[in-house]
Design goal:
- It is a single chain.
- The longest helix is centred in the first third of the chain and has 20 residues.
- This protein is elongated.
- By secondary structure, it is of the alpha/beta class.
- The two termini are about 30 Å apart.
- The strands form 4 sheets. The protein has a 6-stranded antiparallel β-barrel with strand order 11-12-17-16-15-18. Strands 2-1-3-4-5 form a 5-stranded parallel sheet, sandwiched between helices.
- Bound molecules: manganese (II) ion.
- The site of manganese (II) ion has 5 residues, from loops.
Length: about 500
């Protein structure tokens, strides 16, 4: 469903006429070679398109306007092989509406020690040419990513690749339609917020629908489609005995599958990329969507529980960033703690809705009572997540700005099996420790709902925050509460004094 190869990044090379035709031809050849290499490398998910070397303000402005108007182009990479006087870039950079990365590289990796002469010096000028460009971008207060190193260096390619994934996700979010079934969970604060501001800042629109509109789609599900989906459940999951044909709760799984088909039909028909539910408003639904939400997340849809449209949209955006990468990405909640001082950890889960993209083995399909919401017992997939590095990301509304909080976490094995826990679960230790990490998170106002990802790193989220021009707080292994609280105070001042974004 998510395809990054539909997108393009344009590669802009700056120069000037001072160098003469021969040098400019060489610049163009070098640039084309870099573009071909980047286009082919595994860590870059889109095509990189070479654009003719830019030597005048008119050419620069024209190419920027063209990039703004081309839906396939999701961002531009700029590189000054030779010196490109930056006054030439003012009009173009002022007009730029696409994300910008500045690749600070040099065609020749090595200085040819015994052969270096003025010809080499005149051609390989990025060391100062890119500083002239950097000055202008900074003078204009432009948010962009600066990546430094040789273009064949895999780390450089990976850092560009991360930014390109984010640029694709940014394009995907512009005009994204999010559907909210029912409203917010009553009285909950953190899931509320300003949808107009979210649309202005982040590009997506939230559409409210009554449950009756969804129920129509669920009622229209055909017996044939239902049978086919139940067969697919049998093939993909370990289906509990009581859910089998003739089993005590077979009707529950039939109903869950019907809900999945109806929900899917609604989303496809309305061209929605993300949705929310709330257990407080299920009028006309027999059970809370469990496996439906789980499988739709696995297919790339954003999801937020209890009306949490902001986390739902963020999940979709992170699904786009993570497309094709190893490791899953899911809606998540800090649910319960293990507070034994020698082994403090978080049990992350939700009532039902954890994405099976993070499952470490074949999920089990089970039905259990929910104990909340007053509906029939919902069917859900139950599994564990693999150990390793992960991030939790939360986006909250501070009233005058949006704030992203990201925590690096280490996924670990549970101390003991939890045979009676009827939901998918992840155990993690927040960095630098649960005591410091959770305190920092709470000082920052981070939500209990997050997007959890084993495919992405904080670098992706930083690139996103730069493009979206929102605040980002990163809780890492180096975080101390003293320094973190200062950062919160200083950011408060920055957003009051500055434009706010
Ligand atoms: Mn929740």
């Amino acid at each position: 469903m998510i395809r990054l190869d539909q997108y393009e990044i344009w590669f802009l090379t700056g120069s000037q006429h001072l160098y003469g035709k021969e040098t400019l031809e060489q610049v163009a050849q070098h640039s084309q070679k870099i573009v071909a290499t980047l286009s082919d490398c595994a860590s870059i998910p889109t095509k990189i398109i070479f654009k003719p070397v830019l030597t005048t303000p008119e050419e620069i402005t024209q190419i920027v306007r063209a990039s703004n108007n081309d839906d396939r182009c999701v961002g531009v990479i700029a590189w000054m092989h030779t010196f490109s006087p930056a006054k030439n870039w003012i009009a173009g950079l002022s007009a730029l509406q696409k994300p910008l990365a500045h690749l600070h590289t040099q065609f020749n990796q090595d200085i040819p020690w015994s052969e270096i002469d003025m010809d080499f010096m005149n051609l390989n000028q990025a060391a100062h040419g890119d500083r002239e460009f950097g000055f202008m971008a900074t003078r204009m207060r432009l948010q962009r990513k600066v990546v430094v190193g040789h273009w064949q260096d895999q780390e450089v390619q990976a850092r560009l690749g991360a930014w390109i994934r984010v640029a694709c996700a940014w394009a995907d979010a512009q005009g994204m339609r999010v559907v909210r079934f029912g409203d917010n969970m009553r009285s909950v604060a953190v899931t509320e917020g300003d949808k107009v501001e979210a649309q202005l800042r982040l590009g997506y629109q939230v559409y409210g629908y009554g449950l009756g509109d969804l129920v129509e789609h669920i009622q229209a599900v055909s017996e044939g489609d239902l049978r086919q989906l139940l067969e697919l459940y049998q093939a993909q999951y370990l289906v509990a005995d009581d859910l089998q044909t003739g089993g005590e709760h077979h009707d529950s799984v039939r109903e869950a599958a019907r809900i999945e088909l109806g929900l899917r039909s609604f989303l496809v028909n309305g061209n929605f990329k993300a949705f929310t539910t709330t257990f407080e408003n299920l009028h006309g639904l027999v059970q809370l969507p469990g496996i439906a939400a789980q499988r739709l997340m696995a297919d790339g849809y954003g999801f937020g529980a209890e009306g949490d449209w902001r986390t739902s949209a963020l999940l979709r955006t992170m699904k786009v960033m993570a497309s094709g990468l190893a490791g899953g990405t899911s809606f998540m909640e800090d649910y319960t703690y293990h507070l034994k001082p020698t082994g403090m950890k978080v049990l992350g889960s939700h009532m039902l809705e954890i994405c099976p993209s993070i499952a470490d083995s074949q999920p089990k399909l089970e039905v259990h009572p929910l104990g909340i919401g007053g509906k029939a017992d919902p069917v859900r997939l139950v599994f564990d997540a693999p150990t390793g590095n992960a991030i939790n990301a939360s986006i909250i509304d501070m009233g005058n700005r949006l704030r992203m909080v990201v925590n690096d976490v280490d996924v670990v094995v549970a101390d003991e099996p939890m045979p009676k826990l009827p939901v998918a679960r992840v155990m993690w230790i927040p960095q630098p420790s649960l005591k410091v990490g959770a305190a920092a998170w709470i000082y920052a106002g981070g939500a209990h709902h997050t997007v959890f990802s084993q495919a992405l790193t904080a670098e992706h989220m930083m690139d996103y925050a730069e493009i979206a021009q929102i605040e980002l707080l990163h809780i890492t292994q180096d975080t101390t509460l003293h320094q973190f609280k200062n950062e919160l105070r200083w950011n408060e001042m920055f957003y009051l004094l500055g434009r706010g974004y």
